[in-house]
Fold:
Amino acid sequence: MIKEKILVIGACGQIGVELTLELRRIYGGSQVVASDLREENELLKGTGPYVSLDVMNKEMLHVQVIRQNVTQIYLLAAILSATGEKNPNLAWSLNMQSLLNVLEIARDEQVKKVYWPSSIAVFGPTSPRVLCPQHTIIEPITVYGISKYAGEFWCNYYHHRYGLDVRSLRYPGLISYKSEPGGGTTDYAVEIFYDALSENRYDCFLKEDTFLPMMYMPDAIRATVELMEAEEKNITVRTSYNIAAMSFSPSEIGAEIKKHLPGFEITYQPDYRQTIAESWPQSIDDRIARNDWHWKPAYDLAGMTVDMLKYMKPAIEARNRKNGKVH
Ligand code: NAD
Ligand code: AKB
Structure:
């Protein structure tokens, strides 16, 4: 049996760090090559190989795929919704060209599987707001959403035209404590924990009643691995699967945190991200993922909050120690 050799691109980001660690646990440290533009993340150091790689440099990427005998690629490099609105051309260019580079090289080198995440950002104001279905009106208003929707169709195209086994999930907002989020509209749901634990207050950039679909990172990592390990015959969606876990508003997560930190206070100063958030559905219908490869989330708002408060405290203390704030 050929051993898998996995290349993770964007391995130092919010998802990349945790996904790389999980893939290394499953396939062995040396079988998973982490790559990014940034310096290697502290948590990845010593757990497996790391290469500095710009996914926009197609030749460099091609060389790595050949040199490392790569059999699977996970492409996580992207510019997210909030940062994307500040520089739409750059977001379009990175989000599209990185995917086309990966798909082309995967096809040329007969890479067995490709993973590329999409997002709930594909949906727009004309999509159903509650339990948004897999197949529906999709008219995104952010450059990030447009790039994700176009990317979904490129994945579908490479699958049907060239037989490339490319798989994808439309992640909701992801909540985690191991590495910081990178410029999304849903980032408030991570920031709130940092500020609650450091200052016992949080000034939210969304309105109190803005409901959004969210997921705790352990569920997102498990969903990714389960999708990639599912039998090919069970994969019926070759654009990108809806997946869901929980939906809440800033005031609801604030109230949940207050149960554990009684003095916690939340205030609201909505900015340009409010328009983005309001264009997305409040909740997602993920029945097809549940049927096809038995997707089921483990964490709800209460369970995620307990876990985040428990593990984020030591993470903040470690970060403060590193920055010389605490001795
Ligand atoms: P992130 O911004 O935290 O990480 C992206 C990583 O890509 C960064 O480490 C960055 O340095 C790297 N990168 C950027 N440009 C690069 C380049 N040219 N070459 C190589 N690496 C480069 O993002 P994330 O939150 O980990 O998201 C990963 C993927 O998941 C993205 O496609 C994103 O759209 C998608 N997604 C994320 C969320 C979420 O809530 N985090 C939700 C839906 C979809
Ligand atoms: C963002 O807010 O941009 C991301 C996403 C939902 O894709 N977290």
In short: The pocket of 2-amino-3-ketobutyric acid (ligand 2) is lined by residues 80-81, 119-121, 144, 173, 184-186 (CB under 6 Å). The chain has two domains: 6-173+216-242, 174-214+246-282+299-322. The radius of gyration is 19 Å. Residues 301-322 form the longest helix (22 residues).
